[in-house]
Structures are given as structure tokens and as C-alpha cells.
Amino acid sequence: MEKIRCGWCEKDDLYRKYHDEEWGRPVYDDETIFEFLVLESFQAGLSWYTILSKRENFREAFDHFDYQKIAAYSDQKIEELMNNAGIIRNRLKILATVTNAQKFIEVQKEFGSFSKYIWGFIGGKPLDSRPNTLQDIPATTEISDAISKDLKKRGLKFVGSTVVYAHMQATGMINDHIESCFIRE
């Protein structure tokens, strides 16, 4: 019997694998949370598929998303990234990634971990919207609005409410798998 999935992931095996193994699964480790923060911020204005297909290139280019290293990137490293055809070469997004790494570390120092900070907005447990169709899934919510506002206040960039909501979906802060999706079993 064929598995029923959320309709957005049926483009190809890369998308299906991401849907089946990662999307909507709760993530509590800071390293993975930061990786998704970087990827989601690069997605702004682009498709998630574009980012996902370049994920390994991003991983290599950004030192496996090591936020300690990224926070200290030099102008030379930024130019190297700007010349890397394997990633999205957007100077503002690259600079934002460096800033976001620095601010991520500040949040860790304040809260003990970035995970405690971000999961604190929803009481530490995943929300479940139980959508029947993809049309039932919003692009933003009051919670993503609040997180976005707080992240911006803390100096992070490219963290609008839509980016934050996508991050919440990716890291399992909200389960937006449709009711008929096999993941719900």
C-alpha cells in the first residue's frame, strides 16, 4: 500500500525523504536548530526545494553550521561564500547568517540554550494544528509573530514571521502534517 504524505513533498525522493525523516519532528539540540535557522533565512523569497537541494553545499560552505565558527567569519570568508556557486550568493543573507550566529550565542548565554529560549514560547512541547488539507496550514500565527518580533529585538535578521513559522514546522515545534499523512500514525 502506498504511503499517503502531505502533498507538498511529492516532487521527488529528496523532498519525500525530508518529509518522512525530518519535517515536523521535534528538534531540541541547538546545532540542528541553528542549521534550520540558517536554511530558513536563506529560503526567504525562494522555494524550500531550492534550499533543500543545496543543503549539502550550505553545510560544507558554512562549516557544518558551526555557529561558533560562523560568528567569527572574516571579510575574506564572506567573499569566499559570495563566490561559492553551490549556495545562494546573497550578501545580505550571508551577513545575516554571521550576525545571527553571534546573536544565537548571546541567547544561549542568557537562557542556557537556544532550544530553551525558542521552545519556551510554546511551553516546551510541540503544538499540533491537525490540518485536514494544505490549505488549512497558515503562513504565520500569533506565536510566529511573537517569536519573530523577539528575535528581531535581539538583533537577528531575516527572521520574519513567515520564516519563523516555517522554522517551527521544520523543527517540529508545530506538527502541520495533514490528518491523512502516514506520519500521524
Automatic annotation (TrEMBL):
Membrane-traversing stretches: none
A GO BP entry: base-excision repair
Organism: Chryseobacterium artocarpi
Matching InterPro entries: Adenine_glyco, DNA-3mA_glycosylase, DNA_glycosylase, Tag
Catalytic activity: Hydrolysis of alkylated DNA, releasing 3-methyladenine
Organism taxonomic ancestry: Bacteria, Pseudomonadati, Bacteroidota, Flavobacteriia, Flavobacteriales
A GO MF term: metal ion binding
Tagged with keyword DNA damage: yes
Coiled-coil blocks: none
Sites where the protein binds Zn(2+): C6, H19, H177, C181
Keywords annotated in UniProt: DNA damage, DNA repair, Hydrolase, Metal-binding, Zinc
Alphabetized Pfam families for the sequence: Adenine_glyco
Protein name in the entry: DNA-3-methyladenine glycosylase I
SUPFAM superfamilies registered for this protein in UniProt: DNA-glycosylase
Enzyme Commission number(s) of this protein: 3.2.2.20
Function: Hydrolysis of the deoxyribose N-glycosidic bond to excise 3-methyladenine from the damaged DNA polymer formed by alkylation lesions.
